Structures are given as structure tokens and as C-alpha cells.
Amino acid sequence: MDSRTKRKVPGESVIQFCNNISRHGSKGGRVSTSCKSCSRSKKKCIFDGTGDKCQLCAARGIECSLKRSRETGSRSESGSVVLPGTLDQEWLTVFLNEDTPFYNLNVLNTTPQSPEHRYVTRSLGYEGFSGMLYGILGEYDPLLRDKFFQYDDNDECCFHEKFFRRIEKNGFSHIFAYKKYDVAEREDFRLCHLSHGLDFYLNKVSNLHGYIPALVTLYVKFILPSLPIFDGTSINSVFSASAGAEESVDYGEFSDPLILLLLYRLTYRWFYYDTTIPIKGMDIMKGDDLQFIFGEEFFSVVWNQINRELIAPTITTLKSMILFYHIISFKGTGYRTPFESNLLSSIVNTSYIMGLHLDCSGWNVPKDEKNLRKRLWWTILVLDIWNKLANSLPTLAMNNSMFECNEPTSSVWFDMFDDIDDFFPESTIYSFYLFSKISYTTSKMVKTLFGGKTTIDDPEIQDFDDIFDMWLEEYSSLSLEASVPYSSVALCYAVAKILIFRLKFKLIANDMEYNRLCFNGLINLFGKVMEILEGPSSSGVNCFWYNFSRSHFFYLRDVLLLLMVISSDKPQSLMVFRLVRRFKEWLANNARTLKIVLPALVRINITISSLGKQVKRLKDEQASKLYN
Q1: Are 549 and 382 in contact (CB under 8 A)?
Q2: pLDDT per residue over 23-74, tens digit each?
Q3: pTM score > 0.85 for this model?
Q4: CA-CA to 539 of 20 to 30 Å: which in 303, 410, 491, 508?
Q5: C-alpha span between 604 and 599 (Å, rounded)
């Protein structure tokens, strides 16, 4: 972002972080870490461990309720002891203590399941749950969940709102993740009953007609480098007409009610970052006519209109679906959902119907249309690859034989952008070219190496490894505009490398040998990840534009979990948990402004707390003395 003043976005939420750990079965879902006196006084409760009271109770000379809880421990409804104060930060400090003996976390997977966690046998008809298959590619890493999660007699690992079902005892490559239906529903939008007819809402969108030039300007400046789905002829027609525009001027496809509605919702946040755009009259949150744009009715209106247009789809319909997909999937909660995958598949299917997968170079159509068709194809392709990887689903690239003959080349790429290259420098175009190239290479790697016939000595594993490293070196050398989502694209490199390490983990099948061959490589990879996250590019307002970045943070969380459990000595353990602390601090510092990182922060806190509680339960004399 440049030096211009940043306006505060109205309604920007401030997330309050607390150290309470959610515990299954406890009333209210949370165990307080404040004493009763401080809670009543609404004061911060500070217990420094030097005495038997918190600082405020000691100053008042009164009994402190934390003293009794620390002497006796509190008990959950299931009867298991819950120890107040064993917070994720405290456990991280314990794991980072250089003076304590090393304890191998790998043994945690042998801890027997406690009786209170046994579950009755279920059938495959899980009432009230929605199931999703995950393989070795997905953000739910089944290798880790098979090896280090505790499964009961039914091959199930159960949590409060979800559970995993192991379906391959010997393959270690597939699980089903079941989630309560109402939880899954909360993570998507809810289709509500519209109080008026569909056209009633679409007619109201005409009130935004006069702001189209400003909306298109914002799209070109902040979004076009990431989603180049509009052609130069349409954009230039808006700019040429905007000087003395009247209400009746035709802005082409930008006057389409669905496109205009989605464009406003998508660019709204940028009004408050770009002070060159006059916002007088554009903040319609205070008005009643268009209030539905920021409510549940918005999703219902858009979804119903898309389904109406799919009867006879056009290129404009396809653009609307891409914009809608981005809006619904760029959220701060949960993982990929079946609805998102189904919508993306519908986008892919529509692109085939429109013939975007065909080479149109020799077609008798205008040059701008040819460029647009090619850019739409590659935009859909990269979105499909990285979002489908998160669910271990087959992608458009894997099922298209023509794709293998169409690896992107820089010369063809610049020709594809010549109708919009006036809007950004060559480095921006080259960035999207490299993004498409790593997407192509990752898809090719998955198709080549993950078919089940690869061995650990296969030279293609190292070949792909080297290709990805050369890609990062080239991409890191680019001088990019703030509007380029550098961090989103660069993390694609990390995920591609993680997939190779996962494959090796599966093929080696020996933790000590895997540690010897891969530990240093994983540490170095995560060091590069932190350089990407902490670098100046990650501070830009558009650094994590792509919605699949949310999944990337879960891949990173799983890498850290893998490193935690394969560490073979104290120096390795310290190295890993220092990375954990560094990653946690970055997540905490950015969770206020980048809501997609909050779920990863929550889950890494839960992971550390869970490890601490499991270590505490171990019947090891040294561990007992250390942690009790």
C-alpha cells in the first residue's frame, strides 16, 4: 500500500484474544482462568506463581478461588481432571525449556483411549452429519490423523462437533471427516426466503448505476491483476463514457444487475483504502433500499439469479459465478465445504460448455474476445487446482488431455494480456504467468507421483523438487506492485513442497528414517515460509487475495505437527517449537486484519494444548515429576 492515508473500514471487527481453552463437556464450553473476585470486579486476574493468590486478592488480603483450584484441580462432567493454568502459551513455554529433559512426542500415539471417549458402533448413515473424503493431498492430512490421533474400536476419532473415520488401515491415505450439519451450515451462507420477488431486488441495483466508473476503477487497481476476467474494450468504454456520463449511459456488461451487485460487494472494502475515489453517496449501508447487499438476502438473490441464468449461460454468467465464488469462500471460519466445491465444479462445467478449454487462436472472433477467453480459462484453472487440492478432489487439469499440450509460455502469455496491459506493469503480468506455471507444475506432479506406483527412489521426485525451488527463486526476484497477491502465490510453492514431503512420509513409513532424510528439509522449508510471511510484501492490502490461502495455513499447521512428533532429540524439539512460536506470533499479529488466518491460530493453540494435556497423562515418572 502506498503512503496515502488509510481510511478505517466501518464495521471492522476487533478480535479479542483470550487464553481460555475450550473443553469438551464443560458447561458454557469454557473454563475461566480468573478467580471469582476478579471476575466480579471485572479486573484482570494476574497469577504469577510466586504465591498462592492472584495479585489483586493478595493486595486485598482475601481468599483467592484460584488457590483451591490449583490445590485440588477442577473436574469436568466426564470425571477427568482438568488443570487450570495449562494454557497453550504455558505449554509452549514448557516445550521450549532447554533445561528440561527431552520427551519424545511420538509415543503419544500409543496412549490408550480413555474409557470416557469410547463410542457405540455407528452405521454409515450418520444422522445430522455431513461427510467429506480426504486423501493425502487435502488440508486434513490423513497421514497425521491416522498415525497420531487416537481411534476407538470403531476406527473413529471423535470431537465435540466432528469426527474422523479411518477407512484404510494399511494404506494410511484416506479418511472421512464428518461434521455436524448445523456446524457445516453456519460455515456457508444460508438461503433465506426472500420477502419479495427476485426482480424486486435486482431492480434496486440500478441505484448503483452512477457509481460504475468508480467500481470499475477499484476493480482495475486492486482486483484485475488477480482476477483478469474483464476485457480491455469493456473497461475502456466505461472510462471513456464516465467524463460526462448521465444516468442513462450504457456501460455494457457492467450495467448487468448481477455483475453490478457482485462488483459493489467485492470492491466495497477498497473505498476505504484508496483516498482518490470519492465515496460520497457510495456508502449505502445506511440506506434501506440496498441494505440487503450486506445481509443474508444478498446470497439468496445472487444464487437464485445465477440458477436462472444457467438455463442459457453467457460469458457474463460465468464471470458472475467466479465473483460469487470468491465472495462466499473468502471467509474466516472452517475448512473447505462441499457447497464451495460443488459451485466450483459448476464453474468448470460451464467453462467447458462455453468452449473455453479449446484453442481459439484461429477463430473468427475479435482479438479482445480471444484474449478474454484464454484468461478466463487460466483463471478458472488455477482456482480449480488450488481449491480442489484442499479436498483431495480431481481437478480440471487432471481430466483435460488438451491441458498437457498447453503449458504456459511467457511469449503467449503477454500476447494474451495485450488488451489490458495499459492498466499494470509487465511484472504484474509476469507474476500471473508464474502463478499459472506453478499451478500447472503442481497438477502435473500430483498426476505423475500420486498414482500409487511411485517409489522413494523415483528420480522424478527430486526433479519436481528442483523445479519448485527454481520457481521460487524467479518469483522472489520480481519487483511487484502492491496490488499483486504475492503472499498467496508464494505460499503455493510451500504447499507444493509440502505435498512432496507428505509423499515421502508415506513411502518411507519409518519415522527415524524419515527424520534423517527429511527433517532438515522441512525446517528449511518452514524458514522460507516465515520469510514470505514476514517480508514487506505480506503487509500489502492485497497480499492474501486468493481464498485458497486459508487452506494453505492448515497445510503449514500440519507441517509443524509433523515436525513436533518426529523430533528425535532435544535440539530438534527446540528448533521446531521455536518455529511454532514464531508462526503463532505472526498469526496472532495478523488475525485482526486477515480473518482467514484466525482458524489456523485457533487450531494451532488447540494442538499445543492437546499435546500438553496428553503429555501430562503419560504414566512416565520423569514426565510426571516435570508436569505435575
Answers
A1: no
A2: 233 333 333 457 777 776 667 777 665 566 777 777 666 677 765 444 443 3
A3: no
A4: 410
A5: 9
